[in-house]
Structures are given as C-alpha cells and as structure tokens.
Fold this sequence. Notes:
Blueprint: H1 15-23, H2 26-38, E1 43-44, H3 45-51, H4 57-69, E2 73-78, E3 84-89, H5 91-124
Antiparallel strand pairs: 1-3, 2-3
Amino acid sequence: MTSQVRGDLFDPACPTRRLLDRIGTKWTSMTVKVLAEAAPDEVRFADLRRRMPGISQKMLSATLRSLVRDGLVARRVEPTVPPSVHYRLTDLGRSLEGPLAVVRAWAEEHMAEVDRANATHDAAE
C-alpha cells in the first residue's frame, strides 16, 4: 500500500484521481447507467450496444473489459454458437450508480450555463 495524502489530486496514487482515470469517460458512465437500469437482470452485449447509440463494438468491448477488470461488472458466457455474453453490475458497480447519477443531475442543471460561458468566452477571443 502506498502512502499518500488523502485527496491530493496531484498524487498519482490519489484514490479520486485513480477512479476518475477509470470511470471518467462518457462510455463508462453510460454503460453503468444502462446496466443499473437493467439490474438485477443481465444485458447481452448486442443489447448494450443498441442502448448506447454511437458506441463502436471495439469501444464497448474495451469499456466492458475495463469494468470487468475493476470488479464493477460481471461477465457470463453461455457456451452457444455463437457464444452469448451477458453483463451485469456487481455490488461494487451498483454502488457507483448513485454518485454517477449525482453527476448527471448536476450536468442537467448546469450544462446550459457552461455552454453559455463557452460561447461568451469564444466570442470574446
């Protein structure tokens, strides 16, 4: 275990920094949301892709692989031809849905302000 100052985002070992490095993409947040909405049921890969417009098969595969590696998502393969692959949130993954929902709520409430600030800044340059 590395020693660190808690909450020091400049320290590469900071838990917050490490978490943001893992879940800070739109695809990760969307994947957790889709799986949370389906919980406790599993979702097949093709269904996940259908529910996430714009994601490529390669990006979804990489996102799921990362979430499985981090213990946030469980993967189950049915030995059919072709194999049927199912995903669901683990208890750890379900515990992440609440904080991500707070971030989504903040975005829904404040992104218009952020967009206006961007437009004002860009017009002044």
